[in-house]
Write a structure and sequence with these properties.
With 353 residues, the chain is mainly α. The protein has one domain. The chain contains 17 helices and no strands. Helix 1 runs parallel beside helix 7, helix 4 crosses helix 5 and helix 6 packs antiparallel against helix 7. The longest helix has 28 residues. The two termini are 34 Å apart. The mean pLDDT is 94.
């Protein structure tokens, strides 16, 4: 990869970060604040929303894991991200656990973008690689890559896993695959589940239940089931039950629900469209990464989970480049506006994914 390629990636990353802060600035002035699930609680959020806005919802749980470790009903959250964050936080100082997680996320994302770019260049030209980076950065829920979540770290581990597999660096394949399987359950699809096995051993010793991370899923409410639900049933639920019964007077719920089903349909279509376009190993990972979250019976977090299904962004880039320029601009505009709305809602405590 040339130096100019890294300059392109980092410049686009910085442009994306500026856009996210602009969306936050607008949200602080125009979007009502929801008082639950704010990063650090109301007082800390109000004192410094520029920091704590990115730790809302699950970010609170990860911050708690960093500070006090695992407690009952927190085993759904896998250990690598909290462990890395705690390590960095100890270096920065005991009071910097919030900042350390955001540093881990943002640095991991840059590393992941570089790996993603290099991975694409193994099969395609720079136009496809740049388009894929562009589509990923300005995807409507990409703000999670900048938040106190596992998305950035997991994305970096997965793309570099595939890169090292392609160049036959097997030691790195085993290390990265193991770490990925202890970062997100989807990491087990990489077939190097040593990290997951280590986490299961820990859970067995601590709780007597090696699968406590699966049984904890019921804490997320009725939209999730500990029993397996097939994909057609999930689509049926949305089109026949959820969408017709929405309260269309409350825009945030309408926006998040339609975002869930739109991304679910779009990614399914692009996975199918990629069958003859990209490598089968990517598609197998992508299909499993798509199906596993839906097995709980809901797409409620899918707009976030979809971010790490990198094959879709490669396929999307291939087709995007074939579109007329005006249609490309229109798609970018829609995605950019969606990113702005989603970021604004999330940073003000409204559920997105």
């Amino acid at each position: 990869m040339k130096k100019t390629d890294f300059v392109f990636i980092f410049s686009l990353f910085m442009l994306w970060r500026i856009a996210l802060f602009l969306f936050l600035f607008l949200a602080l002035n125009f979007v009502p604040l929801q008082q639950n699930f704010l990063g650090g609680g109301m007082q800390r959020y109000l004192s410094n929303p520029w920091l704590w806005s990115w730790i809302n919802f699950d970010g609170e749980h990860y911050l708690s894991l960093v500070k006090v470790g695992y407690q009952p009903l927190t085993y759904f959250y896998f250990p690598v991200f909290p462990m890395v964050t705690r390590f960095i936080g100890n270096i920065l100082g005991d009071g910097e656990k919030a900042l350390s997680g955001l540093l881990v996320s943002n640095i991991s994302f840059v590393v992941g973008l570089v790996g993603f770019y290099k991975l694409i260049l193994l099969d395609f030209d720079r136009k496809v690689a740049k388009a894929a980076i562009f589509l990923l950065l300005f995807f409507p829920t990409s703000f999670f890559f900048a938040s106190y979540y596992t998305e950035s770290l997991f994305f970096a581990l997965v793309v570099w896993f595939f890169y090292f597999m392609r160049v036959k660096k097997w030691f790195m394949v085993v290390v990265l695959g193991s770490l990925a399987s202890a970062t997100r359950i989807i990491g087990a699809t990489l077939l190097v589940p040593f990290g997951l096995m280590g986490y299961m051993y820990f859970l067995q010793q601590k709780t007597g239940d090696a699968l406590a991370f699966m049984h904890d899923i019921t804490i997320f409410g009725d939209q999730r089931s500990s029993k397996l639900i097939l994909l057609p049933q999930v689509f049926y639920r949305y089109f026949v039950r959820i969408i017709p019964s929405l309260d269309y007077s409350y825009f945030p719920v309408v926006f998040s629900t339609f975002l869930e089903i739109f991304i679910a349909v779009l990614f399914l279509v692009l996975l199918i469209a990629g069958i003859k376009k990209i490598r089968s190993s990517y598609l197998i990972y992508g299909a499993l990464a798509y199906l596993i979250p839906s097995l709980s019976g809901s797409f409620s977090s899918f707009p976030r989970y979809a971010l790490v299904i990198f094959p879709v962004f490669i396929t999307g880039a291939i087709y995007f480049l074939k579109l007329p320029k005006l249609l490309q601009i229109f798609i970018f505009a829609i995605s950019f506006v969606g990113l702005g709305i989603a970021t604004a809602f999330f940073t003000r405590g409204t559920w997105i994914a």
